[in-house]
């Protein structure tokens, strides 16, 4: 399944790049701020510098944007090849072809470089190909990867073959909306994540009610309204509708059923809503360059779910949580919420439910914000909310 999904997307990308080249738009010196100084950038079509490729291989579109003559180097025993290894100043389309992998997970780093008065300028692109022999020593295993693995808000991926990692984009693929890891056995997300900044925290639209299945997850795993047993459970948003109101498209994507959890009505309308609202308040009071990274979820491990599935189909979490990381000019701050599904309904204060990221990791088994440098991550995840209350007003 992983290889088939990956190949489908790779073929689509290949078609796009061939059309681009054939229509004469592959190389151009049109005005671009990157060309105003000595610089080079090598990315995929989403602007990321890392891609995960399925074991069956395939083709991928890359883009070079350079202010001078450039070249790309691969290792001598590379499992990948490129359609163009050098070129002149401007924007260029590169087709990357990846061979089938019958062994363990493997990695290649492509280095694009140019010479300048400041010396060699380089841009690296990391290519990781999943292996055909399981995930004993691999980071991504045979999980289906349909998202950007470099995002700061991500928890570490499970590498589980029953999980789909997806990033949803808006604005023709130029703006990240949110990401999730969906487990097809549980019919429930392992987690969702997104970020607030001074663009995505804007209020420009209303709740869409655009209920529907996630187009990036195969329809054989679909759940619908009746699977949430309306008498007992609300269709609880994980990424809240009001978290993503910076565009109509962004809000519509929050109504995918992969973003829903069977929550008791009193919980959904009570303490869960209180936590959503305080996080939204923090996200909408950011200064110019601040970012609030948010991960949310309900527990789906076998020892952290209720005895009965909703409609015998969707697991019902025993606990719900949120993990928060805030980047400000004066540094980083973090905190987490952990709450039982059944007992609390509404709280007078949320501080009693606030814990450190390290405590939430120990409870859930997840590794939050793992794309942070290790030394920063180690210090930040141990912050206690009660000792850093000025960073989280209203607790």
How would you concisely characterize the structure shown here?
By secondary structure, this protein is α+β, with helices and mostly antiparallel strands. The protein is built from six helices and 19 strands. The chain has an eight-stranded mixed sheet with strand order 10-11-12-13-16-17-18-19.
Explain this structure.
The chain contains 6 helices and 19 strands. A hairpin with a 2-residue loop joins β8 (106-116) and β9. It has 395 residues and is an alpha+beta fold.
Structural class: alpha+beta
Low-pLDDT parts are: 1-31
- Proportion in helices: 10-25%
Apparent shape: globular
Provide mean pLDDT, rounded.
90
Largest sheet: 8 strands, mixed
Q: Tell me what portion of residues adopts beta-strand conformation.
A: 25-35%
Q: Tell me the series of helices and strands, N- to C-terminal.
A: HEEEEEEEEEEEEEEHEHHEEEEHH
What is the count of helical runs? 6
Number of strands: 19
- Strand order within the widest beta sheet: 10-11-12-13-16-17-18-19
Protein topology:
Elements: H1 2-22, E1 40-44, E2 50-53, E3 58-66, E4 70-73, E5 80-82, E6 86-87, E7 90-98, E8 106-116, E9 119-129, E10 144-146, E11 163-170, E12 175-183, E13 188-196, E14 233-237, H2 248-253, E15 260-264, H3 265-268, H4 271-283, E16 291-298, E17 319-328, E18 331-340, E19 354-355, H5 357-364, H6 374-380
Parallel strand pairs: 2-9, 10-11
Antiparallel strand pairs: 1-3, 3-7, 4-6, 4-8, 5-7, 8-9, 11-12, 12-13, 13-16, 14-15, 16-17, 17-18, 18-19
């Amino acid at each position: 399944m992983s290889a088939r999904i990956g190949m489908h997307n790779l073929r689509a990308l290949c078609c796009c790049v061939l059309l681009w080249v054939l229509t004469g738009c592959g190389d151009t010196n049109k005005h671009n701020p990157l060309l105003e100084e000595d610089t080079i950038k090598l990315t995929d079509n989403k602007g990321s510098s890392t891609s995960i490729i399925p074991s069956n291989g395939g083709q991928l579109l890359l883009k070079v944007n350079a202010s001078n003559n450039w070249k790309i180097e691969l290792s001598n025993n590379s499992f990948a090849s490129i359609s163009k290894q050098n070129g002149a100043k401007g924007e260029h389309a590169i087709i990357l072809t990846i061979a089938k992998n019958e062994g363990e997970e493997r990695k290649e780093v492509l280095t694009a470089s140019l010479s300048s008065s400041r010396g060699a300028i380089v841009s690296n692109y990391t290519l990781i190909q999943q292996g055909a022999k399981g995930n004993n020593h691999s980071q991504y295993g045979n999980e289906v990867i349909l998202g950007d693995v470099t995002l700061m808000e991500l928890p570490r991926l499970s590498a589980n073959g029953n999980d789909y990692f997806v990033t949803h984009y808006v604005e023709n693929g130029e703006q990240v909306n949110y990401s999730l890891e969906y487990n097809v056995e549980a019919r429930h997300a392992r987690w969702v994540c997104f970020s607030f900044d001074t663009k995505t925290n804007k209020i420009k639209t209303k709740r869409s009610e655009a209920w529907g299945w996630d187009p990036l997850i195969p329809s054989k795993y679909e759940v619908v309204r009746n699977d949430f047993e309306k008498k007992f459970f609300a269709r609880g948003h994980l990424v809240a509708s009001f978290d993503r109101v910076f565009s109509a498209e962004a809000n519509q994507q929050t109504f995918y059923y992969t973003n829903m959890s069977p929550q008791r009505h009193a919980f959904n309308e009570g303490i869960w809503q209180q936590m959503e609202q305080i996080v939204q308040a923090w996200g909408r009071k950011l200064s110019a360059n601040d970012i609030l990274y948010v991960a949310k979820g309900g527990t789906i491990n076998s020892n952290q779910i209720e005895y009965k599935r909703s409609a015998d189909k969707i697991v019902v979490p025993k606990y719900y949580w949120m993990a928060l990381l805030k980047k400000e000019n004066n540094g980083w701050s973090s905190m987490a919420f952990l709450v039982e599904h059944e007992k609390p309904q509404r709280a007078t204060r949320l501080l009693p439910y606030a814990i450190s990221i390290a405590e939430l990791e120990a409870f859930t088994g997840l590794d939050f914000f793992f794309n942070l440098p290790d030394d920063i991550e180690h210090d930040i995840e141990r912050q206690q909310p009660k000792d850093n209350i000025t960073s989280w007003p209203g607790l």
